[in-house]
Amino acid sequence: MVKNPAQKQPRRKRQAYDPSQRKARGLLTVGTSLPNLAAPALRKRGFAQAKLITDWPAIVGEVLARETVPQKLVFPRYSKTDAILHLRVASGYALELQHIAPQIIDRINGFFGFRAVADLRYAQGPIPPQRKPRRIAPTRLNDMDEAQLRRSIGDMDNDALKEALLRLGRSVRAGRGARKDPGRESG
């Protein structure tokens, strides 16, 4: 039987949301779903590919990402190639960026795998600072908690395992130090 291409196939019904599916998949980081969540808003600004925004530091490098921010991507009418990428550039960096524009265009097109960008346009303006990952300094246990931890672990033949358990115990006890009940012995 030959299928008629003009005849429409019935659409499959979308399955209802099932919370048990989330448990099977596990927790997801925000970064994995950010392109899908931000796609409608970015599409309004001309960014059909949300990855240009989310992966900008990976595309152009950390140094250029600190000095530039993509603003909008303008495609010619009825075309999905040869777009003009509008960048916000830190004051005084536009001249240097002009000299390395061909390399930046090559990096962007290499990232997408086709000639997505043909030209760059610059607008000087303030660049928001990138957030640095927060480093949490480990807190030190007081002597009484340290002695209690060593007592609870006891003597072990395997020194590597003992050190790993001590590190784990220190981090757990330091994390709940402020919430500890004074009348309850933890161990």
Estimate what percentage of residues fall within beta strands: 5-15%
Q: What's the average pLDDT?
A: 77
The biggest beta sheet, please?
3 strands, mixed
Instruction: Provide a count of the helices.
Output: 9
Tally the structural domains: 2
Radius of gyration: 27 Å
Q: Do you know the CATH topology of the largest domain?
A: GMP Synthetase, Chain A, domain 3
Topology:
Layout: H1 19-25, H2 30-44, H3 51-54, H4 56-60, H5 62-67, E1 68-74, E2 83-89, H6 94-99, H7 101-112, E3 117-124, H8 143-153, H9 159-175
Parallel strand pairs: 2-3
Antiparallel strand pairs: 1-2
Helix pairs in contact: 8-9
Compact description:
With 187 residues, this protein is α+β, with helices and mostly antiparallel strands.
